[in-house]
């Protein structure tokens, strides 16, 4: 790569944050929804609908027009959906959920990335929220962090769980622990996709998830066949389960912490119990990897010594304790897991 080409690549980094927020703002202001409902609106009409100046709206829409997301009729001075018209609403909403989470939890902390790497602490949380700890702890007390994260987690779980449960075996009447199960959607899906007489599913996550989780169980009529245990996976995992599910979680941590989690999980399993893990498979060649674009150290979720896990990127397994049956179909299950301890029943 020539020096000129190298500097040209810097352009992508210089405009990246502005491009991200420009596009997201078009959705947050309701401009895209307005054009979906009424194609052919002018900047003045869109500005009136959004409560913004027409010139500001026109400037904002230049980027989606350039990218082909929108089309602009220069003669009439009107806008309509272009490529966005062909994107299904459910698919688009999943992307918007991810963008909302990035805005709320990632961009804020990235401003202090240099200081976070230098000090070994999450400086962004301390400077912006006066909070010393990791993002999980901060979400317990700050709704503006928790709500976009929670929305994304439920969106991912909704999309992945049908496939996940189609590839694992949950024996009838199992006592299941959904590790870092958030607000109970995974437990609800366990009953939906693997329901059987006597099946009982417990969600294990940080204590602040308790009320929302139990409310979800009540809303689905599962009070008697579900429970919630609040705590931290690094302090130990509740015992007495013959099946444990770990999804959307392990890729947040380095090798040492992943091994600690798995040891705690192993200790909690009943003899013959099964563990099903859903983790992403990252590209071994970093030049082909998208994860290096999104997982800088000390940036968002885990403390610096629990940053993105290069060393465990090949994690994919379904295993069982000695003396148990074969691991089952989940040996090739792929993707991630989540977070997690107070023992409660929905009532």
Task: Give your account of this protein's structure.
A 7-stranded mixed β-sheet has the order 9-8-7-4-5-6-10. It has helices at about 5-30, 30-35, 45-50, 55-65, 90-110, 115-120, 125-130, 135-140, 145-165, 185-195, 210-220, 255-270, 290-295, and strands spanning about 40, 70-75, 80, 175-180, 200-205, 225-230, 240-245, 270-280, 320, 345. Helix content is about 45%, strand content about 15%. It has 13 helices and 10 strands. Mean pLDDT is about 85; it is low at about 300-345. The radius of gyration is 23 Å and the shape is globular. It is an alpha/beta fold and about 350 residues long. Helix 1 packs across helix 4.
Instruction: Give the C-alpha Rg.
Output: 23 Å
Total strands = 10
**Secondary-structure element string:** HHEHHEEHHHHHEHEHEEHEHEE
Distance between the termini: 64 Å
Helix count from the secondary structure assignment: 13
Task: Kindly report the spatial arrangement of strands forming the biggest sheet.
Answer: 9-8-7-4-5-6-10
Low-confidence stretches: 298-347
Backbone structural class: alpha/beta
Q: Would you tell me the overall average pLDDT?
A: 84
Helix content: 40-55%
Q: Major beta sheet, specifics? A: 7 strands, mixed
Percent of sequence in beta strands: 5-15%
Anisotropy-based shape: globular
């Amino acid at each position: 790569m020539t020096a000129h080409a190298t500097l040209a690549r810097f352009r992508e980094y210089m405009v990246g944050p502005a491009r991200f927020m420009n596009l997201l703002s078009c959705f947050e202001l309701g401009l895209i929804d307005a054009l979906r409902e009424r194609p052919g609106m002018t900047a003045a009409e869109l500005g009136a609908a959004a409560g913004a100046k027409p010139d500001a709206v026109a400037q904002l829409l230049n980027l989606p027009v350039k990218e082909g997301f929108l089309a602009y009729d220069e003669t009439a001075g009107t806008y309509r959906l272009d490529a966005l018209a062909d994107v299904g609403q459910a698919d688009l909403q999943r992307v918007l959920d991810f963008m909302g989470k990035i805005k709320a939890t990632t961009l804020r902390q990235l401003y202090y990335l240099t200081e976070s790497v230098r000090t070994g602490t999450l400086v962004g949380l301390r400077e912006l929220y006066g909070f010393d700890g990791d993002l999980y702890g901060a979400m317990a007390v700050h709704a503006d962090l928790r709500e976009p994260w929670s929305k994304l987690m439920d969106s991912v779980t909704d999309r992945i769980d049908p496939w996940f449960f189609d590839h694992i075996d949950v024996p009838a009447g199992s006592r299941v622990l959904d590790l870092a199960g958030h607000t109970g959607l995974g437990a609800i899906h366990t009953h939906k996709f693997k329901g059987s007489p006597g099946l009982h599913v417990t969600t294990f996550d940080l204590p602040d998830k308790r009320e929302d989780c139990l409310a979800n169980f009540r809303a689905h009529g599962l009070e008697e066949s579900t429970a919630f245990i609040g705590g931290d996976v690094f302090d130990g995992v509740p015992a007495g389960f013959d099946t444990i599910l770990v999804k959307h979680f392990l890729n947040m941590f380095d090798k040492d912490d992943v091994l600690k989690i798995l040891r705690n999980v192993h200790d909690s399993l009943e003899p013959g119990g099964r563990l099903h893990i859903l983790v992403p498979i990252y590209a071994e060649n970093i030049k082909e990897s998208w994860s290096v674009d999104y997982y800088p150290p000390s940036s968002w979720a885990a403390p610096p010594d629990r940053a993105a896990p290069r060393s465990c990127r090949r994690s994919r397994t379904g295993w069982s304790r000695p003396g148990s049956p074969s691991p089952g179909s989940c040996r090739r299950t792929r993707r991630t897991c989540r977070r997690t301890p107070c023992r409660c029943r929905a009532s």
